[in-house]
Write a structure and sequence with these properties.
single chain; alpha+beta; Inorganic Pyrophosphatase; 3 helices; globular
């Protein structure tokens, strides 16, 4: 079991896409989702972890509750979803709110409702299709061991490259670690 601190960016059922700006340390409105799309869960990030897309590592937080953007909470990792977004690795850790006793029974990915996992996969596979079909690709879900490894790797990336410009970071990483940008 691994607990992490997550800052909520987007609340469950929101049409508003917020984005954390590392330079200003503010959560800003990025855009409004098109059509009937709404976020299927609370969506946050790990401030001390840099994913291969040059942004903080994303976390999908399973909970019946809706958390406001900017809220910090304790989350228990249960797995991850492997995703490529426009050619960039964009892993989504999957966690549950660790301080909700109603979720104590969820200790691994397989304990989550299949409907939840299906809704997450469908949403992230299609919510950007208006830009072009298949802009996002999901190869599937991974368990806790993978999620912990990804978390640790991304904490190291933030320590080494957190001050680097996003485009410069991605270009450098694609040259040095091309395997991280394909399935």
């Amino acid at each position: 079991m691994k607990n992490i601190s997550v800052k909520i960016e987007i609340q469950k059922n929101s049409k508003i896409k917020y984005e954390y700006n590392r330079k200003t340390k503010e959560i800003e409105v990025d855009r409004i989702l098109r059509g009937d799309f709404v976020y299927p869960c609370n969506y946050g990030f790990v401030p001390e972890a840099l994913d291969w897309d040059g942004d903080e590592l994303d976390v999908l937080v399973y909970s019946d509750e809706v958390f406001q953007p900017g809220t910090k909470l304790n989350a228990r990792l249960v797995g991850a979803m492997k995703m490529i977004d426009n050619g960039e690795t964009d892993t989504k850790l999957i966690a549950v709110h660790a301080d909700d006793y109603r979720l104590d029974h969820i200790q691994k990915l397989e304990d989550l409702p299949m409907e939840f996992l299906n809704s997450v996969k469908t949403f992230f596979s299609t919510y950007k299709n208006w830009k072009r079909p298949n802009i996002t690709q999901i190869s599937g879900f991974e368990g806790l061991e993978y999620a912990i490894s990804e978390y640790n790797e991304c904490v190291e990336l933030m320590d080494k490259y957190g001050a680097m410009d996003k485009k410069e970071f991605i270009a450098k990483m694609k040259l040095e670690h091309p395997e991280k940008y394909t399935f």
